Each structure stands twice: as structure tokens, then as C-alpha cells.
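The instructor's notes for this session suggest beginning with a concrete chain rather than abstract definitions. Hand out the sequence below and ask the class to guess, before any prediction is shown, which regions might be ordered.
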Amino acid sequence: MVESGDFKQALWLDVDGTPLSANGKLISGSQGRQRRSRPFLEIETTVVDPTYYTRPWTVVRAFGWHPGLTSFNEYNCEEQVGDPSVHADAGLVPEPKE
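After discussion, reveal the predicted structure:
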């Protein structure tokens, strides 16, 4: 099981703006399944966030599976959400200095 939580700030789960609060958790693994279904890898993730949702909910995503692929291209989240030099609200929000 993989559980992600204790986020420094709220975030969006997808490009549609589905929110997750800083107190929310994402669970994949024993509660959320991962299974190989040629030609896909299916990952089931449960979202637990009482701030925004009345009960946990689950989503299944399928990713292309390539057994002969031995390396992956780097995924840059900042490039996916926009260029901060073009739009002030794009890109990642800098972490506050402690």
C-alpha cells in the first residue's frame, strides 16, 4: 500500500480542477489495486478527504504498458500546468521559507 498525505497546500487531482485539500490522502496498493492488463497497467487509487468529500471515492487509471521499455522519460509537472512566465497562476507554488 502506498499512502500519500500531509501536503503543504491543497492541490488539483486532474486538469478539470478536482480538488484535494492539504489534509487529504491518496491511497494506492492494498486498498487501491495495481494490476497488469495487457497492454495496460491499471492503478486504482482511493481519495480520502473529509474537507471536500462526504466519503472516500476510488478512481482507476490505465497507463500504457510496454514490457520492453527499460527507461522512462522524465515527467515535469510544472510543464504540464503551464509556464509561470506567461501566466501568473501557472506552475508550482514556491514553498514558504521556514
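Then share the key points. Helices lie at 77-81. The mean pLDDT is 75.
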